[in-house]
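in:
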């Protein structure tokens, strides 16, 4: 019965969801810190999600405006340039300011929080280069 077999397959776990150590992999305290269930469930402030997505929302608005003014080619060209600039990075243990992305977005003349006090997501402590490269390549 094909219907019975389909219902059995629907309830099973696909192989793409399970990695080699995915189900039994522990939490990495050195890279991710201590876990808090409360922080994973709810944002700590109502504006936190808006602030996290601010740049994405601003880019979408700019692309829509650019499309209305110049046509579909302008935002597509700009998105291709964004992708090309995002691919060029330094090694993971070296700080990268990504000046080309700032120039494309027009933020090169603006002074922001990260210019004075550095980006909060960037750590001041440089990690061990070999371990960080192995983690980026998925060898760890």
């Amino acid at each position: 019965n094909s219907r019975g077999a389909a219902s059995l397959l629907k309830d099973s776990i696909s192989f793409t969801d399970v990695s080699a150590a995915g189900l039994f992999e522990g939490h990495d305290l050195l890279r991710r810190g201590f876990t808090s269930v409360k922080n994973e469930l709810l944002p700590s402030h109502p504006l936190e999600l808006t602030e996290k997505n601010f740049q994405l929302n601003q880019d979408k608005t700019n692309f829509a405006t650019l499309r209305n003014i110049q046509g579909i080619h302008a935002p597509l060209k700009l998105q291709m340039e964004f992708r090309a600039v995002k691919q060029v990075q330094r090694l993971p243990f070296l700080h990268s300011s990504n000046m080309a992305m700032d120039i494309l977005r027009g933020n090169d003349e603006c002074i922001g929080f990260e210019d004075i006090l550095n980006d909060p997501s960037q750590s001041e402590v440089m990690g061990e280069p070999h371990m960080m490269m192995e983690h980026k390549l998925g060898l760890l």
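note: Residues 37-114+125-135 form one domain.
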